[in-house]
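Quick question, first post here. What does this chain look like in 3D?
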Amino acid sequence: MEVLNIFSVIMAIGNEEIEDTISAMPGVGRAENVEEIDLIEEILQYDSYDFIVMNTLLSERKAVRLADYVENILDSPVKPKIIALVKNLNDKKLIAQLVGFGVTAFVSFDELGLIGRYMENYPASFDLGILSEEHIKTDITATRVINGTISIGVFNLDSGAGATTCSLKLAEDIANCGYRVICMEFGQENFCSIKKKPKTLELVSADLKEKDTILQLAFSDNSFQFIILDFGKLFNVSTSGELISTKHELIGDFLRCNYKLGMCYASLWHNGKMDIFLKNDSFRGDLYNEQLFLLASGDEKSEAELIEDYHELPIYRRNEMKEFTEIFKRRIGISRINKRKDKKIQLFRRK
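> Answer (accepted):
Ran it through. Tokens below.
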């Protein structure tokens, strides 16, 4: 009768369902979950484990640092083996860094069953040759077929960060590609003063009391390919990245958006707010699926520091809005001008 090895495992996953799946795997005798990857480093100073399973989407920087710590700093006769959860096996830069620190087991999220196999037989090496250059994604070039209405939620992390301006520019750009677009604001009347716009763009100022009815009409009308929602300052976030409060009447509409675009300031005072996207479960799926983007404004040095400190997040400079828009349009499936001519339809008539 084959005797099953029993292993102790410490995990930083950020997903309770995946943690439960790993804990229930045959051979796992002791399992501990922590919220952040860097907490594992602290625990290893007084406790030992056979395996570390870490979700690199929580923080690539912390994942590489932990691998370095285990390989070069941890003073232990038997060091834990690391199994890294990665978005895909084409992330050459991250995988190469981790391999350099002794990590040879990489698992994508749709092959979690490999974790149990790697615990029984940890790979002796990893062949970096399988990461051919043609499979490495250097830009957001994935396209999607436009099917039905795609919703884009634009929001501020700080008052006046530019959600309304960004919403209008994005809406006009998409409309100029030939698509029918509705751009909506809530509880404001900034759009009422705009006189000139593309024929395929409709601007709507929605009263909060009537927003549900208006949104239902907008989503049910098959003539619109895109709905852009200007949420303004949606969150109140502390400088340490804690979510203090939300606009409860809009949060549901925001979470249902297919894509989310956040406007923020780059400065020492504001940078800590970026932690909300790394700590809050609501954003992890958006980050994993490349459906969340951030535009930062500030001086050149502050912008560079923000992008460096939070390199796990897709942060772009606001003064490069044109370049970002082209990247974003390719991401949502707009790669050329739509030649189809649609008649202008006025769903929402202003008095």
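Residues 132-147, 338-345 have pLDDT under 50 and may be disordered.
The CA atoms of residues 47 and 245 lie 37 Å apart.
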